[in-house]
Amino acid sequence: MSRTRTVATAAAAIDRRALLAAAGAVALSAGIGHTLGPGAGSGNAAASPVRAAVARSRQAPTAPLAPYRGGTTLLTAAAPRGTSGYRRLGDGPAWPRVVRGDLAAARAGREERRTALAAFVQFTDLHLVDVQHPLRYEYLRAQTASAWRPHESLSVAGAVSLVERVNALRGAPATGAPLHCVVTTGDNTDNNSRAELDWYLKVMSGGRITPNTGDPRRYEGVQASGVPLYWHPDDALRDADKSRGFPRLHGFLDAAIREVDSPGLGLPWYSTVGNHDALPGGCWAPRDPYLTEFAVGGKKLMSLDETRGAALWKAVKKGHDPKGDRFKELLRSEARRMRPVTPDASRAPFTPAEYVLAHLDPAHKGAGPVGHGYTEENLAAATQYYSFRISDDVLGISLDSTDPAGHYEGSLGTRQLRWLERELAANERRAGGPSYVVVLSHHTSRTMRNLRQDPARPAEARHGGDEIVSLLGRYRSVLAWVNGHSHKNAITPHRTAHGSFWEVSTASHIDFPQLARVVELTDNHDGTVSLFTTLIESAAPHRTDFADLSRTGLAALYRELSFNAPGAKPALGGEAGDRNTELILRKG
User: Fold this and answer.
1) I need a surface site. Which of 283, 327, 414, 581 has the fewest CB within 10 A?
2) Cα–Cα distance, 429 to 328 (Å, whole number)
3) CA-CA distance, 401 to 458, in Å (whole number)?
């Protein structure tokens, strides 16, 4: 079928839709806040009334049970002013909702018939960054914009502002039904660092965060190095970014490492792991003694000959250095050019088991559930995948797509693939009929091409995106595969011999346009279901004030600086059909 995209018209019968949404909301609010675990057959498990939680934001009013636009990109989205140089942001035009009938025709009258099945918010690629971490490779900035960003010292302030936005939402934008939960799809941290993991858990569940490591009194990273490759906001150095119009902001670095208080999400939230959460630099095999010692030590490389940098990045990009051997060789050879920094044990990498244990810590329960998807069973089995109830009608399956052998692309091992198949099959046999299924992972189908064998399971094969698409397509209960990694909005229809589903990839919160996505599922009662996707920004205003270094002011600067970052790609926002959408599917 040809790809059709039409701008949705406003619904006329709000009262009837509100009644139907209310009926759906009663059913779906009963099954929230509990994890089913990594065991086979959990797709047939019933909701636990003991662990169920009412899905309502702490700060939000009762859901209006009617569509709304405020607080979403359906009303306004950040847009630049001016045409050249450093460009300020302001309120831009709304992004309209687009109906996509690639997989099924949109039938008239569905607006009056539909009922809500589930609604959740997706966070992805927060990349909470310890910008002073010794293992960071900022000196590769000339080779890749992701090596260092002028705004990344504000990642915690930006993430807290995103939490504030979710807490203020009036329910699900398309239906007005209550939101059930927030899910992350990986790269929650940037450097596989214990400090970053602590910041992430406190951002999500609430707490006080000091986004600083090393010397507690001052910043020691590249923005105070005197190296012109980086933006130096506090001094008059004519660096590469000031030559592009970046401002001089007195007190910026002190403000960036100042304590931040996160209110925590008012919704239950679930965590999915990404390659930056599991691998140093997001690409090197973990638990290397040299890299571990270097991470907590007192030396940091801040500049590098461009020729050497180009050679290293070429090897990393093509996957030729998954164990970090060339990276270690470079660090050893550049030892005399390194600068002293204050050692800090909190910069140590965390293991997969430590990642799960940190989530299970009651101090990070927040709005629940304990473990945020992970359970004691994950610890015992040494796994980081699980299933959970988004609602009575919708099963969530969270995957671990990182390849432990290294490189930033992903795959699944045979053990996990077979577990996924058992979960889907058990759901098909569920008493009362199968639930709809939403699969969550960090990597996209196109970035799961890394088939290196897991060093802990050398006899186990790895499986890529095409094979996973084929597996998911065999089960008509699968509606969507929601992921991140690419830092780009992209919505892809998948049609197989047995069924069809949508792949929903969402842009990051580290790179402009800094977005999260609300996903809603509805039954149209005409043989089709709809997936609504609505993009949201943080609560920070679009306009910035260079004199405002409050937490809110820093979150606004985080967005504006990310837009102006050299190498930033406007295309990451995607096309209209990748943003605010209604995606139609035939019912299974």
Assistant:
1) 414
2) 51
3) 17
Decide: 465 and 447 in contact? Cβ < 8 Å: yes
Residues 6+ apart with CB under 8 A from 380: none
- What beta strand segments (E) does 133-249 contain? 181-184, 207-209
pLDDT at 565 over 80: yes
Q: Which amino acid is at 287?
A: R
| Radius of gyration of the CA atoms of the chain, in A | 23
Q: Tell me which of 116 and 2 has the higher pLDDT.
A: 116
* DSSP per position, 27-49: HHGGG-S-EEESSTTGGGPPPPT
Q: Among 519, 505, 373, which residue's Cα sits nearest to residue 443?
A: 505
Contact between residue 567 and residue 509 where contact means Cβ atoms under 8 Å apart: no
DSSP state of 138: G
User: Per-residue pLDDT tens for 416-447?
Assistant: 999 999 999 999 999 889 999 999 999 999 99
The span from the CA of 438 to the CA of 440, in Å, is 7
**Beta strand 490-495 pairing with 500-505:** antiparallel
| Backbone dihedral region for residue 377 (phi beyond 0: left; psi -120 to 50: alpha; all else: beta) | alpha
Closest of 121, 465, 395, 413 to residue 269, by C-alpha: 121
